[in-house]
Specification:
Layout: H1 2-27, E1 31-33, E2 39-41, H2 46-64, H3 70-73, H4 75-101, H5 108-117, H6 123-141, H7 148-165, H8 171-187, H9 194-209, H10 216-234, H11 237-256, H12 259-265, H13 267-274
Antiparallel strand pairs: 1-2
Length: 279
């Protein structure tokens, strides 16, 4: 029951805050050209931080005064709450740094490594280093059965995976929801507090689909890291290793070829990619 309460709180907060937050980004000139060369607010994923963290902090506050619910009263679920808070706070801040001051001069892991060897610290390298540290902290805090290093690699790599899809309106959010549904169906679990991320993502979806805002790394990294955490929490070591291999393969493909072209060439992917998008 309490799960539904916090889902409602997260969704309600996100719905209430979204218009004001997006206007704030626009007034602050945190804008970028989208694929249609329109200047629209980016970093809209900051809504995750503003809606999800208060919801989960309220959970901790209510428990501290004696309000409990069986579904979230266990120590494991409390640890998962804190893991989600760390993911949302940490990856939102790293993504916002990239959205605010990042440049397109260095692309891909090789580009950021080359820039570092040339004495230039890029926001992408900052995300890689600190994102890795954050992922390890999450793996230690969350109730996981796999070795922390494996789960940390999964969370860290998944964080950037959704970012690879954030090139067209709604694509990153669709990838998140497909991933979430697949994990939930095969694991038989909802992820507990991870549902709060899905609730906030549902609020962002129509804004993103209509190309009114861009998630930016602020949002895409949170979505990806959340899926990585979900896999790490629900599946065995073997499944996590297979997932990690799949994510590495996707990154290698994206380094050499265009995911957008791949989606355009496959009829089913192209239909799903265009579904609900502003024409």
């Amino acid at each position: 029951m309490l799960t539904l309460v916090y889902l409602g709180i997260t969704y309600g907060l996100a719905r209430m805050l979204a218009p004001a937050v997006f206007r704030m980004l626009d007034r602050g000139r945190l804008v970028q050209p989208n694929y249609l060369h329109e200047q629209i607010p980016t970093g809209a994923g900051i809504l995750f931080l503003l809606a999800i963290v208060p919801s989960l902090m309220l959970s901790a506050l209510m428990r501290s005064v004696g309000v409990h619910a069986a579904v979230w009263a266990s120590g494991a679920m409390q640890r998962m709450e804190w893991a989600v808070v760390i993911v949302v706070l940490g990856f939102s801040c790293l993504g916002l740094l990239d959205d605010a001051v990042g440049t397109k001069e260095a692309r891909g892991l090789r580009g950021h490594v080359k820039a570092l060897l040339d004495g230039q610290l890029t926001t992408g390298m900052v995300k890689a280093i600190y994102g890795g540290l954050l992922s390890f902290i999450v793996a230690v805090v969350a109730p996981l059965t796999a070795p922390p290093l494996l789960s940390a690699l999964l969370v860290s790599l998944a964080a950037n995976t959704i970012n690879l899809f954030d090139l067209r309106p709604g694509r990153a959010l669709k990838a998140f929801f497909v991933g979430y549904v697949i994990i939930a169906l095969f694991s038989g679990g909802s992820g507990g507090p991870i549902l709060c991320v899905a609730a906030a993502a549902a609020v962002l979806l129509p804004w993103d689909l209509q190309a009114k805002v861009m998630l930016g790394d602020t949002g895409a990294n949170v979505l990806g890291a959340t899926l990585g955490l979900f896999v790490a929490a629900q599946f065995s070591v073997a499944v996590q290793i297979l997932t990690l291999i799949g994510l590495v393969s996707l990154h290698v493909y994206a380094e050499k070829r265009s995911l957008t072209q791949l989606i355009a060439d496959v009829a089913l992917l192209r239909w799903f990619d265009n579904l609900g998008r502003r024409r």
